[in-house]
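Researcher: Go.
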Amino acid sequence: MLDDKGLHSPAVKLADKGCFEQAMEVAERIKYARERSIALKEIAAVMAEAGKFERAIEVARKIVDASEHSWALKEIAEEIAK
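Model: Structure:
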């Protein structure tokens, strides 16, 4: 497990490049739940922007932090509504 804070950035960079599965692998290795939740939220948002709505919702379900979970669902809903 990765134990440093701020490691959500590499996961998000992978998602930005369309490497969603690799992004998820990195995010799921983050030890701290808050940091992992932030990474998953951002990955879900990028997936939604790419039109991968079902996968984005699956990722959002893995977010344990309530505020990050809500934010991810809001971002997904906004992308679906476009």
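Model: The chain has a mean pLDDT of 91.
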